[in-house]
Amino acid sequence: MAFIRPAVTVAAKLIAPGIGSSAIPNLHPSKTGAVTQSDATALLNRRSDISAINQPLVAASPELPLLDVDFCGECLPLDQIDVIDRWKHVFTLFRTHASDLGNLRQRADTFFPIIDPILEKYDIPDDFRYIPLAESALQPKAVSRAGAAGYWQLMPGTARALGLKVGGRIDERFNVLKATEAACKYLRTLYTQLGSWSLVAAAYNAGPGYMKNQLKRDDHRDYYRMKLPRETRYYLYRVLLYKEVMSRPNDYSSFLSPVQQTAYRPLGHTGASLG
Questions:
Q1: Is 72 in contact with 112 (CB distance < 8 Å)?
Q2: For the segment 94-137, what is each residue's pLDDT rounded down to a tens digit?
């Protein structure tokens, strides 16, 4: 969304709890002689075998292919562990929405031919065509809780400053041609100020004022290493995700649409006896 808006917390990763000790606790110290070590081991094995009977065998999830990815010629630095973690995280979250890709592609086939000439007019790189996908999923009447609206999710003040009419019965943020013109003017201004397209994308989300202040505090201009609000920290990854799944979906199909194979262990495989 153009200009500053409250950061939205990205869903946290689910971390599996660690497996504790397999030792059987001694609940009755006075009766330690009642059960021998070999008996305890046999009992533990039997419990494990019986439990395994009802455990489904699920095919392991495929790994996300780590391909060469760039945003406006600036490469995604997949040699950094935290970058890989964020990249995998946004893809994992997107898996639950992968079934919507067909509809999104249909909307993009109509939307891109309209906005591409305007991007070219303002000399904005093609990769910015994916900003509206990350912002509004190409829903023309999308309105955020913060008040951003339209394909480009422009805030009212930003839209008015860019020459759009917002108020009363007229809201030109919903006009794809006028909103795209305004967004491109804004992106071109941001690039003049920041000199990096990745920083431009970050500023589109967090606001130019925030990014300028952050650049004063950091000794570098690297988006991927900057200390940013959580939403902005993941923002460019989300844009790149849409670029990847829209431009080369077959490369990620095994990860986004894995074949679910679930089976149950036959009783005879465990050797367990319920008697």
A1: no
A2: 888 888 888 999 999 999 999 999 999 999 999 999 999 999 99
Distance (Å, whole) CA 231 – CA 202: 10
In Å, how far from its chain's centre is CA 247?
Answer: 17
Q: DSSP 3-state helix, strand, coil percentages of the chain (rounded to 5)?
A: 55, 5, 35
Of 137, 147, 155, 145, the residue nearest 238 (C-alpha)? 137
Spatial CA neighbour of 222 closest among 252, 258, 195, 249: 195
Could you please report the per-residue DSSP string of 47-108? HHHHHHHT-EEEPPPPPPP----EETTEE--TTSHHHHHHHHHHHHHHGGGGGGHHHHHHHH
**Can you give the pTM of this predicted structure?**
0.72
Contacts of 112 (CB under 8 A, 6+ apart): 129
Give the span between the Cα atoms of 7 and 205, in whole angstroms. 9
Query: Distance (Å, rounded) from C-alpha 33 to C-alpha 58?
Result: 41
Most confident range (mean pLDDT) of 22-31, 42-51, 55-64, 132-141 is 132-141
Q: What is the mean pLDDT of residues 210-224?
A: 90
CA 197, CA 193: separation in Å to the nearest integer? 11
Element spanning 263, H or E = strand 262-264
Q: How many residues does the chain have?
A: 275
Residue carrying structure tokens 């009766």: 31
Q: What is the mean pLDDT of residues 221-226?
A: 93
